[in-house]
Amino acid sequence: MADFKELRATLQRTATTFIDCCNKHTVDAILSLRADNCKHTHLPSSLDIGTYNNAEYGAFYGRFANMMKDCTCWIVDDKEMVVDVESRKVVMHAKNKGNTPLGEYENEYMWILTMTGDGKMIEEIVEFCDSAKAIELMKKHQAK
Asked: Which of 8, 109, 128, 131 would staple 43 via disulfide (CB 3.0–4.6 Å)?
């Protein structure tokens, strides 16, 4: 039973650290918890962003990282975080808010993180965001 509890705590800690990495706003930080084979899928599919490997996601994120420096991401309620030890998955609700060179930005996310066997690295990220907010930001970014 101790192994189960330890793995659960590790999964939860990795998910929390993932949010901390998001708040560093660097490609190195955002990729630091990802296993070499990590895949990152953006949803809803109507955003037409798709699935990226680490190198692809680093390039994608790099286009927005500097713009998001004054934004903060946080877990809405860690009591609502779902930790499935057997599948090594964590589901969490997060928000992001702050100022960008393009104006105030705010978004809301559901993340599903699938971890490695030891729970310390992320093998898969499924990110579901408020698509209206994401589209608005992308349009502003393209227009600048």
From this structure: 128
What average pLDDT score do residues 52-72 get?
91
Q: What is the number of domains present in the chain? A: 1
pLDDT digit string (tens) for 65-100? 888 888 999 999 877 899 999 999 999 999 999 988
d(Cα 83, Cα 135) in Å, to the nearest integer? 30
Residue 52: CA count within 13 A, CB half-sphere:
16
Contact indicator for 90, 12 with CB cutoff of 8 Å: yes
pTM confidence score? 0.89
DSSP 3-state assignment of 121?
coil
Six token digits for residue 6 = 């330890």
Output the domain CATH number for residue 43: 3.10.450.50
What is the domain extent for residue 121?
2-143
The C-alpha atoms of residue 46 and residue 38 are separated, in whole angstroms, by 22
Q: Which whole-number Å values give the CA distances from 87 to 11, 22, 23, 52, 118, in the listed order?
A: 11, 24, 27, 22, 12
